[in-house]
C-alpha cells in the first residue's frame, strides 16, 4: 500500500466519529428540548406548581369560611339575641308594639320648595 491509501481510512474514520458525535449531540438536544418544553416538561411542571399554590390558597380560604359558618350556626342555635338580630335585619320583623319609621330617599332631581308658614 502506498502512503495515501493508509491515511484515507483514518480520515474517514475520524469523520465517522465526528458524525456519530454530532448525531449524539443532536439526540441529546432533542431530548433536552422535549424535557423542558414537551407536554410534561419543566415548563408544564412550573405551571402545575403555580396552579397547585393557587388551589391550596383557595382551599385554605374555604376552610376558614367553613369554620366561620360553623361558628355562626352555633351562635344561631345557642344565642337568642344573635338570632333575633339576624332575623330582624334579614326579614325586617318587628316586635309587637314597635313603630317602624321609613324615610323616603331624597330625590336629587326635584327642586326644593320653600315651606309655607301659616
What does this entry look like structurally?
With about 120 residues, this protein is an all-alpha fold. Among the domains are: about 10-40; about 55-95. It has helices spanning about 5-35, 40-80, 80-90. The N and C termini lie far apart (about 140 Å). The model has no long low-confidence stretch (mean pLDDT about 80).
List keywords for this structure.
118 residues, mainly alpha, 3 helices, 71% helix, 0% strand
SSE series: HHH
Going by helix content, strand content and strand pairing, the class is mainly alpha
Unreliable sequence segments: none
Number of contiguous helices: 3
The major β-sheet equals: none
Subunit organisation of the chains: single chain
Cα(first) to Cα(last) distance is 140 Å
How big a fraction of the residues is strand?
Answer: under 5%
Helix content: over 70%
Radius of gyration: 41 Å
Query: Averaging pLDDT over every residue, what do you get?
Result: 80
Amino acid at each position: 500500500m502506498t502512503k495515501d491509501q493508509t491515511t484515507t481510512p483514518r480520515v474517514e474514520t475520524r469523520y465517522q466519529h465526528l458524525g456519530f458525535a454530532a448525531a449524539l449531540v443532536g439526540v441529546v438536544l432533542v431530548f433536552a428540548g422535549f424535557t423542558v418544553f414537551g407536554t410534561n416538561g419543566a415548563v408544564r411542571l412550573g405551571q402545575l406548581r403555580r396552579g397547585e399554590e393557587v388551589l391550596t390558597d383557595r382551599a385554605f380560604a374555604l376552610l376558614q369560611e367553613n369554620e366561620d359558618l360553623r361558628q355562626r350556626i352555633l351562635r344561631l342555635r345557642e344565642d337568642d339575641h344573635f338570632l333575633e338580630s339576624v332575623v330582624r335585619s334579614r326579614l325586617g320583623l318587628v316586635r309587637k308594639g314597635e313603630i317602624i319609621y321609613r324615610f323616603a330617599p331624597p330625590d336629587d332631581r326635584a327642586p326644593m320648595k320653600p315651606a309655607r308658614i301659616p
